[in-house]
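Annex B. Sample input.
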Amino acid sequence: MTDQGRKLPNGAREAEILGLLQRAEGALTPGEVAERLGGEPAYSTVVTILTRMHAKQLLTRTRRGRAYAYAPVTDDPGFAARRMTSVLEERSDRRAVLTRFADGLSDGDAELLRELLGPDV
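Annex B, continued. Sample output.
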């Protein structure tokens, strides 16, 4: 975790909170997140970060009493796949991007990809 009182950049704090939520047994309220982080950052900062992560569609939230409880929308491999898809969607020449990606794969990863795509590949 982090040292008490040490300020982390927003991206690092989001990653820390996302990891915490992924390891949790279920959805957590901001108070539960703040408690598991050892009280640093402040509760209000945790609320702000969770709200922003929800707006970015990284988290779902459900009412729990007067607060929301937050959970990740997917696991770590799912987030990596979402990032890859996002990059692909930002480019106009999908064929070129996929070709460069495939060319850069190790033999083992290329074989795994062939396996995942099915016997006709």
